[in-house]
Every structure is written in C-alpha cells, then in structure tokens.
Amino acid sequence: MNRLLWSLLILSALFLTALPPGRAEGEKPLKPNLDMNAVVQGNNAFAGDLYARLARKDGNLFFSPYSISTALAMTYAGAQGQTAEQMAHTLHYPVERARLDPAFANLIRALQGDGTPRKFQLNTANSLWGQSGYHFKPPFLDILRDDYAAGLREVDFHTAAEPARLAINRWVEQQTQDKIKDLIAPGLLGPATRLVLVNAIYFKGAWSEAFRKENTKPEDFHLADRTNVTVPMMHKVEGLSYFDEGSFQMVELPYQGGQQSTLIFLPKDASGLAEFEKKLTAQNMDAWRTKMQHYIVDLALPRFKMTAEFELSKTLASMGIPLAFDSSKADFSGMTQEEKLWIDAIVHKAFVDVNEAGTEAAAATAVMMKAAGIAQAMKRATFKADHPFVFAIRENQTGSVLFMGRVAKPQG
Asked: How far is CA 88 from CA 36, 184, 264, 396, 403, in A?
C-alpha cells in the first residue's frame, strides 16, 4: 500500500507546482496570490515527503494530502517554540506565521468557489471540538474561526467521550456524503482528550467525455509479481494531454468544466512501478507536465474503488516533528495555559470510486490532542493501464493536489 501512496504524494507535488492552462466554464480567474501559491507548493512538497514514507508498503494506496496539510495547519496555529519550528520545517510552511493562516484561508475560499453553479461537487470543511469549560486562548480560537471557518464546538470528553466520538464521526459523514464513516475508532478519545481538530473533503466530478459502459469488458490486469487478475477495463478514444518519457507514459483526464483533472503515470514494465517511483519528484513531474501534448489517445483504464486509512503519528514524528507527539516536551501553549497539550493521534481515511461516469472521492483527517482535451490533435497514442499505475486528482486553478493514490490491484 505504501508504495502506491509514495507515488501519489510526489505526484501531488507536481500537480501543485504546475499551474493549469485552463479553468472551469463560468469560473472567474483567480487573482494572483503569492502567499497562497507558496502554501500550495509547500503542501505539495510535504505530500511528496509523506508519500515516500507511506509507499514503503506494497499494495493499493489512496489519501488526501490537502486534508492532512489543512488539519496540521490548524494544529500549528497553537504550536510554539521548537515544536512550531519542527512543524514548520517538516510541513514546508513557506511564509511567516502571520501570513500563513490567511494564505490557507484564501486557498480554502478558492476551492470552495464563490457560489456560482459548478459542474462538479467540491466541498471542504473544518471543525474544532473542545472540552466543555476548558479555557482555550482567544487568539487561537480566532484564527481557526476566521481563517479555517472552524468555530469551537464544546463536548464532554471527560465523562461522555463516546457520545463526543459519535458526534464527530457524524459530522464527518455529513461533510463527505456518507463516504467516510467511523473516522475515529472506539477508544481513541477519553477523559484526557482536550481537543480534536478535523478536516473533511469531498469531490465528485464527471469526465469531460464519459466512458461508454458497453465498451467496458473483463480483461487481464498484470500484477507486479507477474500474475494476472481479471478486472472490468473501460475503453474510449479521446483527445487528451499525453507524454511518453520512454520508460513510462503520462495522460491527463479532465472533468467537466476543466477545473479538475486526474493525472495517470503508467510504467511500461508491469513490474516497473518501484523503479518509476524513484524518479517521481516534484521537479520531474513539473518538467514532464510541461512536455505533455495533445494526442488522440486510445485509452484503457480499469474501473476501481478503494478505501484506505492510516494512523500517522509515528510516520510524522519520524519525518521531523517528534516533539509534537511527546507528552512531556510538546509545546502547544498557543492553545491554552491550563495544562500541556500534545498530539496523541492523527487518523486519516480516504475513499475513491473511479468508473465510466467520473470520479467520487472523499477524505477526512482528525488530530486528537490530549493533556500532558482537444479532439483535433494530429498525433495518436495508445495508453492501456493494465498493470500498476499512479494517479492524482488535481484542482487546476490553484494547482492543489486534492487526492493521490496507486492502483496495484484494482478492486471493484
């Protein structure tokens, strides 16, 4: 599973740094915002780092780097001292603290849109769940309310942790159209819990040109170990952005309106995913994307669906922020002075369904804190994704990679 995630995270870095040529119909172009663009690039860099860690395990992988980055940005708003320094370095925060949260606010607004009807669904939401009667510092609460639209919701972790857990999970289900269920498992919250910070994201988009269902047929998918499985393979011929590097192919599938697209990286060798991932850097992806040209692509893509979940505390600690998870050394004094808080757990869960009509994807992240195409293209290409590949869902106006993943073995 981790190997897939590795590819996706780095892929997201590429997506975020390369701004798209077009925008959705009816959408106003975004005004230049250097801080927001820098945050997007920083988020992508962190995505690449995290993917590299998670991709060490074999198998399918899927996650939302945007969701994880946003939940951690809300947590960083209350970090101080060396804890804040470690978080800023590891999370690739590119601007000073006073400019960071407004930049995230601009990114959130850009993704949410201005209320104009859109040809897709893209919703992202944040929430803050705190112990009833606990004193959180007003500046911290103001930042989360004003920049992340996360007003404080008071619950009683001390005597009613289970009802609080169920309430948080219900909120996540509502924000993700019931795709992410039971984000926080029983037992993760308890009397020592003081704060839970949550991000949720949901996307549903139809392909610019759908795959015809009658063209979907059972075909072999060649696994990395040289065995085969039979999967429903979708087919269509369409004008798409395409690049052949020699050892791999790359294609971009737009959604209706053009504001999002999915990038797919397909090694030519069925067992070549691990080798490909070694050169899957943000810089390389940026360079590859600039080389894409319009082709008539004979495309074959498996229909697949997957759910993935992670507990990220050990991974993030190993990446450079151990203090945040140390009950005796963590410094989140920007949140409260009542007692020392530390990050007890970070859970992330993601869902994706890719089919003939389009893509539906959702994800949520919780940080728990405790006390102490152009059809006229002249060139043609064949792209048959009948072996492991990497993919990412990109928001093209901002360049943000919303979701990433790897398909090692399609599951319907």
From this structure: 16, 26, 30, 26, 22
Q: Which residues share a beta bridge with 126?
A: 199
Rounded Cα gap, residues 267 and 140, in angstroms: 46
Residue with tokens 């089919």: 355
Torsion angle, alpha carbons of 281, 283, 289, 290, to 10:
-160
Tokens of 254: 């737009």
Question: Which amino acid makes up residue 343?
Answer: I
d(CA 179, CA 110): 23
CA distances from 218 to 2, 142, 225, 317 (A): 27, 54, 20, 43
Integer CA distances (angstroms), 194 to 144, 149, 189, 338, 368, in order = 16, 20, 9, 11, 8
CA dist 1 to 59, 224, 327, Å? 4, 13, 30
Residues 225, 360: Cα–Cα separation, whole Å: 29
If DSSP codes are grouped into helix, strand and coil, which group holds residue 367?
strand
Count of other CB atoms within 10 angstroms of residue 138: 9
Give residues with Cβ within 8 angstroms of 400, minimum separation 6: 15, 16, 40, 43, 44, 66, 107, 111, 394
Whole-structure pTM over 0.85, yes or no?
yes
> d(Cα 317, Cα 320) in Å, to the nearest integer?
6
CA-CA-CA-CA torsion sign (175, 177, 183, 189): positive
How many H helices and E strands in the chain? 10, 15
Of 33, 28, 21, 56, nearest in space to 314 by CA: 56
Which pLDDT value is given to residue 223?
92
Question: What is the four-CA torsion angle of 15, 19, 22, 23, rounded to 10 degrees?
Answer: 80
Burial class (CB in 10 A: 0-12, 13-18, 19+), 228: middle
Q: How far apart are the first and last CA of the chain?
A: 17
Q: Residue for token digits 């997957």?
A: 306
Residue type, 241: S
> CB of 16 within 8 A of CB of 41?
yes
**21 pLDDT tier (thresholds 50, 70, 90):** very low
Q: What is the pLDDT of residues 38-55, one digit of tens each?
A: 999 999 889 888 888 888
Alpha-carbon distance values, 135 to 75, 339, 341, 386 (Å)? 16, 10, 12, 56
